[in-house]
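Practice record 12: protein with zinc ion.
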Amino acid sequence: MNTDYKTKLLEEQKMLVSELSRLGKKDGGTWEATAQGGNETEADPNTSASRFEEFEENSAVIVPLEERLKQVVEALSKVETGKYGKCRVCNNPIEPERLSVNPAAETCMTHIEN
Ligand SMILES: [Zn+2]
């Protein structure tokens, strides 16, 4: 029964990693934004400013992607240990409807966050 979710999670993980690789690089355990296409020796202040903006934009996008990737990786590790699909709060099985929308869900509908 968990095979479909695992496939979905693996696909999402792949997608997130490729998106993150496009926006930044992995530095230690975390993703750091990089400004793209820049020439490091470029001295034009306008170029530097726009590169800084790009860096800021990339950072803003990376944070939620990285957060999501953590959830996906966590869910995949639960698949491996047989703990997948249990609510983090009450330990009851998470509703299949919820998992089909978000295979990385950590809580049942009763304990949904946000
Ligand atoms: Zn619950």
